[in-house]
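User: Fold this one for me? It's Formate dehydrogenase.
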Amino acid sequence: MGTSFGRGGATQSLQDMANADCIVIQGSNMAECHPVGFQWVAEAKARGARVIHVDPRFTRTSASADRHVPIRAGSDVVLLGALINHVLQNDLWFKEYVTSYTNAPFLISDDFKDTEDLDGLFSGYDPETGHYDRSSWAYKTDDDAGAEPEHGASASGRAEGESHGSGGPPVAKRPMRDDTLQDPRTVFQILKRHYSRYTPEMVQETCGVSVEDFEYLARSITENSGRDRTTCFAYAVGWTQHTLGAQFIRTASILQLLLGNMGRPGGGIMALRGHASIQGSTDIPTLFNILPGYLPMPTVDMETFQDYLDSIASKQQKGFWANADAYSVSLLKAWWGEASQPENNWAYDYIPRLTGPHGTYQTLEAMMRDEVEGYFILGQNPAVGSANGRMQRMGMSHLKWLVVRDLNMIESATWWKDGPEIASGEMRTEDIETEVFFFPAATHVEKSGTFTQTQRLLQWRHQAVTPPGDCQSELKFFHDLGQRIRAKLADSEDPRDRPLLDLTWDYPLHDDGDPSSEAVLAEINGRFLTGEDAGKPLSTFNQMKPDGSTSGGCWIYTGVYADGINHAADRMPGQEQDQIASKWGWAWPANRRILYNRASADPEGKPWSERKKLIWWDQDAGRWTGPDVPDFPVDRAPGTVPDPDAGGPAALAGDDPFIMQSDGKGWLFAPKGMVDGPLPAHYEAQESPVVNPLYPQQPSPTRELFPRGDNLTAPRYGQAGNEVYPYMFTTYRLTEQHTAGGMSRWLPYLAELQPEMFCEISAELAEERGLEPYGWATLVSPRAVIEAKVLVTDRVVSLDVAGRRIHQIGLPYHWGVGSDAVVTGDSANDLMGITLDPNVHIQESKVGMCDIRPGRRPRGEAATRLVSEYQQRAGLTVETGNERVTDPDLELRKEDPS
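Assistant: Here's what I get for Formate dehydrogenase.
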């Protein structure tokens, strides 16, 4: 997610949360959305840990916590930034950890200017493109050891996302440093200045969080961090689905590094993923911009394989990411076998190239321009589950063909006959030329394979029953589709068909014709291709070579099939293991349960405390040892000073615990990698009810915009027409329903528990708008109108923010309009606009503005007219809210910064 320490997943195991002394759950309703994992929070609390829930709503998580802290949705950077300021100003940071293990002592270029200097912008901003030139954010050097080229500088400059994958981007090899931390250009001093205005009073003004709640939170995390205690943070899409989503997580990572909570038992940051294998779908990706194992996708300017390798990593940089050539060649060998040879760049030219971002929303825009002929929908329901549902459905009407694979006849398969636009008259079934194919899919109990869940843990599931009728697993569907396409192309001499024809598509079949999922896992694990071990599985990614002698479909999964054993199926009961539980499933990489665990010991290799002992240096054995797999070269002694000319793992010093970073340190300041700033700064959401109290710059200047007539934005506060959409709304999930409802609204038992769409509002808002409990409400955003039953509750409180009373409306997002599910209802996602985080291209669906009024929404054309009337009253145009720079004096200050 673009964090400076992450490898695309949670840093700890869920089970390790039980070892925390304090747990802050922010951006998640963990008890309801991740009830199985929440057992470890309950266990930690039973052991005496303090649990704090920061969320706009009081939920079941709040009820299980020691304190609920209500917050205005989208203001988290201010709260977290104020905690950083509190830690720094009160000298509560873990000094030995920070000075040894982070980039706090490093000096930043003299050309760098902060948001405090430029009223909300960092140096290098180009208002014409909305992008930053990040050269001024670099480390300062006293020699010619400059930074290596950065991946992602494609023709459009927007193919970033997780483009640095498992490791940070290359940086200057020998940055200048001041170990006293007094130089004003040190990361430490820049950090102090940057967050100096993030105070408890600013938190109260911006977030609506009382000073008392802030002090309780600050006291809780600082008293429970240090040598003998650790604090854990947990988040989910309540943090990620914002235009600042990646920076929310970055802010938490800075705080955790300052407190010394990274790489230690009961610490870290737990990324709670929304599905059983969402983690797996990014490891072996369904994302457009990465390859398996978080290898970057090539861009059009990388003509040769060497160009590609040079853009990922340098052999001179520190850490294991320098071995990306071995991971890449092994991947190409796994895909194309004998067709992958040195003479043809290991078949590198078979991989498509990025010309820019090609995510789901960019593809949607291309659909609207009739540039996309066909579309596969697999395990998704964009007709009701993606932002701006109307635009999603209209986009599908521009296709020539659409394939939907699902368990049920979801709305993305039926929009053409009973969607909202059919009812409103905006589309007529007889005019839609899209040919829709529905393929019934097998459920998770009807197929075998792995789930990779939120803690990077692969767990094998065995097939329980045979899928009924024509239902197929994904593996069988795509295997058969691949065979059919290859058969049709068998006689082709067109070079563009070689990538398909040369694929190693030779999986053994079971008696029922299904390919062996275990054989696929073995291919992903990798094997030796030559020598005396030819054909044997690899045991570790360190065995991968860049000379074509090994193959492996995902380097971070290497070891899951070591010795020919499916370790994802390991099932030793917890009571028969230690606290690491290393024989239950298999965690990537290397079955390591806590990432960067070298940081659990001090610079001399001794545990920070006996209570928080994890791995340590065994002087007699000359190696790192402990219950977890050491995340460090196992024989690298604590005091090791590497050869200055060394690169890769050999360049790691004895106190470089962040082994995938190109400087071995945890990044308080990100000199590269983040496209919207080296430090998180608070910006308001695309639609906001208040003025940014910190900077003249209102929303993120680098946010990805989709200025269209069908994606209008509410005016910002203070602009004409903002009073037309006076209320905030935020979306959330229910235990009884599941995401877009494809697995739950078709089940009568679950449908009975949550039978209809509703909105949660405060009694104060209900009185203000004349809304009756359990009556109907109509909600109108700049894009759509929906209806919902009214749930008046004290779980959603009104907040005093910036001198105004702010009302927040809570909307579950599980329903959709159609005739096939047991229960239907209007979709909350129809209200949302499309504006994206520029790092990872995730939509901002946790903050929006709307009006709410009593009664049911109008039907037919009247519904469309109502939305249009609101748009006219607000004076909306395509340009409304889509200004890049909101400080009119910017150009003047660029010429004269004084």
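One thing worth pointing out: The CA atoms of residues 442 and 472 lie 5 Å apart.
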